[in-house]
Amino acid sequence: MSDSQWTLMIHGGAGMLTRATLTPAQSAGAREALGRALDAGGGVLAGGGGALDAVEAAVRILEDDPHFNAGRGAVLSYDGAVSLDAAIMDGRDRRAGSVAGVSATRNPVSLARRVMTGSPHVMLSGAGADQFSLEHGLDQAGRDWFVTPEREAQLAEMIADPDGWFDVAMKYGTVGAVARDAEGHVAAATSTGGVTGKRWGRIGDSPLIGAGTFADDRGCAVSATGSGEFFIRAGAGHEIAARMRFLGEDVATAARTVMADVAALGGAGGVIVVAPDTSAVWDFTTPGMFRGRTNSSGARTVAIFGDEG
């Protein structure tokens, strides 16, 4: 039943994000992009649109912005390749779509949604997913669109260091969105380029339903960012929703408890969570997380560092 209230939360990654590690230009650019993503997703919700459309709209903005590790500006694999992962999930019926290791779709989140709506499957990967994208007419992009000089430099620096491995700077730029629409439904979407220098077809938590992305109207919607292997082992997204369903925990308690479990396993990062009752929270164990939120009451926050927002 419609109550006209809606909520949108977004993230652009968590990690060693401090005033010492980010330049003023990087901070300003990221904040501007987060604001545009809130405008896109919030505009959908304010116009009476659904949570699924809102999270896709918000994530598409972040995928197109090179300040984040998704779509344009995604980090590079060890061989210099672009390998993108994304997922989207509808809390109404738990339909979901996911792609891993794709390399040619401009907005992987939209490809994930097309997998959900245009195929009998939940997850497609690699060359098959790229072929599916072509057959369904999604916008394509070449390496010149995705790859930025900054990402090439990061990869070269890592390869040059014999001890360098696995994103030692801990700047997880994965992007995501969760929303609750005026009908009371929730949805989640996440998109990432993975980690710098990843090898052997590594896949993290972002495209894995129940780990980095999850939505269920009976619990909540979750999008995660961080050291994906640990979010996978914790089943983070599903675990947060399950704690709310079966233990009656509020969003803050459930998110905090699961993030503590991720940390105990050795992982770091953050989550954004929204429930059908409009309650919403972000929780992160790193110094900062690119993040934003807005709702039907007109409240709006854009933040990066741990001591703000």
Can I get a quick summary?
With 309 residues, this protein is of the alpha+beta class. The chain has nine helices and 13 strands. Helix 1 packs antiparallel against helix 2 (51-63), helix 2 (51-63) packs antiparallel against helix 3 and helix 7 (228-234) crosses helix 9.
Layout of strands and helices, then pairs:
Blueprint: E1 7-15, H1 24-46, H2 51-63, E2 84-90, E3 96-102, H3 108-118, E4 123-125, H4 126-135, H5 143-146, H6 149-160, E5 171-172, E6 175-180, E7 186-192, E8 213-215, E9 221-226, H7 228-234, H8 236-247, H9 251-265, E10 269-274, E11 280-284, E12 288-295, E13 300-305
Parallel strand pairs: 3-4
Antiparallel strand pairs: 1-5, 1-6, 1-12, 2-3, 2-7, 6-7, 8-9, 9-10, 10-11, 12-13
Helix pairs in contact: 1-2, 2-3, 7-9, 8-9
What is the global morphology? globular
Q: Span between N and C termini?
A: 31 Å
Structural class category: alpha+beta
- Please provide the ordered H/E string of secondary-structure elements: EHHEEHEHHHEEEEEHHHEEEE
Structure description:
With 309 residues, the protein is α+β, with helices and mostly antiparallel strands. It is 35% helix and 24% strand. It contains nine helices and 13 strands. The strands form two sheets. Strands 1, 2, 3, 4, 5, 6, 7, 12 and 13 form a nine-stranded mixed β-sheet that branches. Strands 8-9-10-11 form a four-stranded antiparallel β-sheet, with helices on one face. Helix 8 (236-247) packs across helix 9 (251-265). The mean pLDDT is 94.
